[in-house]
Design goal:
By secondary structure, the protein is an all-alpha fold. It is about 75% helix and about 0% strand. The protein is built from 5 helices and no strands. α1 runs antiparallel to α3 and α1 runs parallel beside α4. The longest helix has about 35 residues. It starts with a helix and ends with a helix.
Length: about 180
């Protein structure tokens, strides 16, 4: 028979595990891209890259929106397609890792005596697996960006600066709301 203290401790462990899993899911599903190196981060800063890093959608989607303005040559267009595919692969890998981690957590938490340390280890393993795909996508976007001309870089720069200004305005607006 469990004492009140051990029952409370067990309940606290379950709550902690659920919080851990929720934090993992949020971190994995956080805003983002599969890897364009253009800012700071969803994991403790304002990052604008990584499938879990780009606020408001990933870098590839934003480039897709301005692709016609870039007037890409055949080499650039081919690398764009490679980078976009790498991003899609990374996003799928991240989703798969999140789904697997969630299933593992549900199974483990259904046990009378769940292995909470295993959940933490599983979380890290899922993050590491998805990270390799994100890094591959980042490398492909870096290759694409290195192929841009000065004029094309100016178009991308303008879009990024506009995005950053809108994000800052939103943060200020939300900060004002929080102050009351």
């Amino acid at each position: 028979m469990k004492t009140r203290f051990s029952q409370a401790l067990s309940q606290s462990a379950v709550v902690a595990a659920l919080a851990l899993c929720a934090g993992f899911a949020a971190a994995q599903a956080g805003p983002g891209l599969a890897g364009a190196p253009v800012g700071a981060g969803a994991h403790g800063g304002h990052r604008m890259h990584g499938p879990e890093g780009m606020p408001g959608g990933h870098f590839g989607k934003r480039l897709e929106a301005i692709k016609s303005q870039l007037n890409l040559n055949a080499t650039q267009d081919a690398q764009f397609a490679v980078a976009k595919k790498a991003t899609e692969t990374a996003m799928a890998a991240g989703k798969s890792a999140r789904m697997n981690a969630q299933a593992t957590a549900k199974t483990e938490l259904a046990k009378a005596d769940p292995d909470l340390a295993m959940l933490l280890t599983a979380r890290e393993a899922a993050h590491d697996a998805a990270q390799s795909q994100r890094k591959a996508a980042t490398a492909e976007w870096a290759k694409f960006l290195s192929l841009l001309t000065t004029e094309q870089k100016a178009v991308v720069k303008s879009q990024l600066l506009d995005r950053m200004q809108r994000a800052e305005a939103m943060r200020e607006k939300m900060g004002q709301r929080a102050k009351g």
